[in-house]
Amino acid sequence: MASNHMAEAERMARRAREAARKLALTDTATRNRALAEISARLMADCDKIVAASEQDVAGGRQAGLSAAMLDRLMLNRPRVEAMARSVDEIAALPDPVGEIIEAWDRPGGLHIERVRVPLGVVLIIYESRPNVTTDAAALCLKSANATILRGGKEAIRANGAVYRTIQSALASAGLPADSVQLVETTDHEFVNALLRQERWIDVVVPRGGEGLIRAVVDNSRIPVIKHYKGVCHVYVDEFADLGMAEEIVINAKCQRPGVCNAMETLLVHRAHAGEYLANLLSKLASLGVEIRGCERTCAVFSSAKPATKADWYAEYLDLILAVRVVDSIEEAMEHIAKYGSAHTDAIVTEDASRAEQFVRGVDSASVMVNASTRLSDGGVFGLGAEVGISTDKLHARGPMGIRDLTTYKYVVRGRGALRT
Amino acid sequence: MASNHMAEAERMARRAREAARKLALTDTATRNRALAEISARLMADCDKIVAASEQDVAGGRQAGLSAAMLDRLMLNRPRVEAMARSVDEIAALPDPVGEIIEAWDRPGGLHIERVRVPLGVVLIIYESRPNVTTDAAALCLKSANATILRGGKEAIRANGAVYRTIQSALASAGLPADSVQLVETTDHEFVNALLRQERWIDVVVPRGGEGLIRAVVDNSRIPVIKHYKGVCHVYVDEFADLGMAEEIVINAKCQRPGVCNAMETLLVHRAHAGEYLANLLSKLASLGVEIRGCERTCAVFSSAKPATKADWYAEYLDLILAVRVVDSIEEAMEHIAKYGSAHTDAIVTEDASRAEQFVRGVDSASVMVNASTRLSDGGVFGLGAEVGISTDKLHARGPMGIRDLTTYKYVVRGRGALRT
Lengths: 420, 420
Hints:
Distance between the termini of chain A: 51 Å
Largest interface: A-B, 66 and 66 residues
Number of helices of chain A: 16
Radius of gyration of chain A: 24 Å
Oligomer: homodimer
CATH class of the largest domain in chain A: Alpha Beta
Largest sheet of chain A: 7 strands, parallel
CATH superfamily of the largest domain in chain A: Aldehyde Dehydrogenase, Chain A, domain 1
Number of strands of chain A: 16
CATH architecture of the largest domain in chain A: 3-Layer(aba) Sandwich
Strand order of the largest sheet of chain A: 10-9-11-8-7-12-13
Helix content of chain A: 40-55%
Strand content of chain A: 15-25%
Number of domains of chain A: 2
């Protein structure tokens, strides 16, 4: 790694740490004023931002990006308005910083508090959507964290324009310019140099596909909060309400197949592996879903393709569904433990003890009972704007709200208390 | 790395994962019964354990270990009794698993709970004290985690004897043998192979000196919860109660200088840099403390050695103290931010707004107001047996109790709830 990259990355990270120290001392009103300024200036600067995005889209078209990719890149006035609204919504969230999580007294006149504080410096690495630039900056500012943003190279002009808007808002609100920094080089080695600034950066949140996330984890010395993928299951239990099961299965697969909380594998108790399963799969097929089944599935639904082992591990993000008939709830849970991604898994059952068995035994971030996997979402859960989704066990698990951008400190007050 | 190490480490880690899945389903009473069995069998097997430890001590003496090291290694009957008592105390703690941390309802008939669950598989790497073997096993069992223990090679016979006692207790209580596993090879490469089992092991907790912890962090692909060192400060503010300050300073330095929450650097406001400081340092010197001071310190206390930059970073763990006179609370906070280890830092002041400024501005795991740094401790805080101390920002910070060996899952219950 070029040493000038390391030096420049360290300078950037140290500036962020300095800004974080100042942000930790700011009050809620000041940070909210900065967010209001960002929102207002996004609208004021809308033409400039849209023009910059047009250049990105033109560049992307020349580079042969797909229509879907070009659509993700593109900012127009309604999208900039939506970005401004999202900043307003983040401003309206309660300030997590300073919350006394717990407080208690101890012998010797000690009063102990666990107080919520910002993490410090957050590095966010994301792909093409430029709206992440304002979302991420706003989430971090609201929680008094300094942030370093590194967006996809395709959106570099739009991100730069949005960043300049954010800078003018910070200046107007009297917050340090280094509260939000944008990496404007597209050199991957510079990102890798940032990922080695564990002395100055507290956490990395990568947002994007599995390839991006693995690259970040492989190169980072800083803790990463992440999920690699969502191989989500719905298990239709022996004691399921079968009408409800059908609705949940169709919703979990078809309502938006391209996202991480869509169902990828359906597990069905053998009690329903006959006509019910055949009808259910026909309905899915009529909705455009390709079925890849185990032997017993293929036996009742002849248009199914035989599933291979790779299908049980697959995150299709598409209208494809792996289907397996199981002999018991235990077999369903074994399957989920072996092939799942610990993101979101659901059981459909009317039997309360089966539901409890599944809830306790399935080691996933979100476990749903008689509810669609698609409901595993920060907005649906009421956490406010979503920072991301974690399948890690440490710190934050499942949909991450703004509170997950904080940690705590112990504050201990005495009257000359000593250790004896 | 030898591939047989990787294969064997993976087998061990997978067995731990299987045991963890079973432990997650056990009730409090079963786990407490296992802990009671461990305690009772430690006493029953005491002679065997002491005999094994005598072999370790004899080996250590031959290898030329220091008297202090040999003392740490050594188990006799009172120490085995203390280990058994410690297991009983852990059994008596409230079970953290299953606690509903928060619960709320959301539109569409969703009931959402955040439920405390075990982390899963915990790898604990420690140095010579064999009592960690029972402490760590008991803390993990109580919180329904499977654990892999890797103790220091000097204590390998005592650890093996204790481990066989734990195994007989697990069998008697009907818990999986792989709930607790002991690494019985002394090959470092095998530990490094374990540190790559991120698929099966959830967290590593290293307990020992800075060298051990850095080696673990450098080799681990699994998240590590840790503190490297404790460079703890006491700042005697302009508005301090000077009698209280003297008591706190002497306690923080002298009560037990060899531990991570002992004070290493004293910061004194210039208002007290005359006779008061000279008297305080004389008292410390009379208690055997060597003073290494800044220029202004040396000017008022002639027996002080001049401090070098290395002294501000030093964790002496000894009767040595770095002393610096500062012009303001801001300069004290700057010093702590620059040289500190974010472990525990204290202010002595009667001025509430100064105390608040320090509490908000010092980014350490524990911030003490008018209290000794030595009070930063799980037992003192009332957390029960201490798992360790963390200076990380993620997951657990400060003294770690048994609750820090847990994570949470979201449990969502609906009546056929769908995403619309």
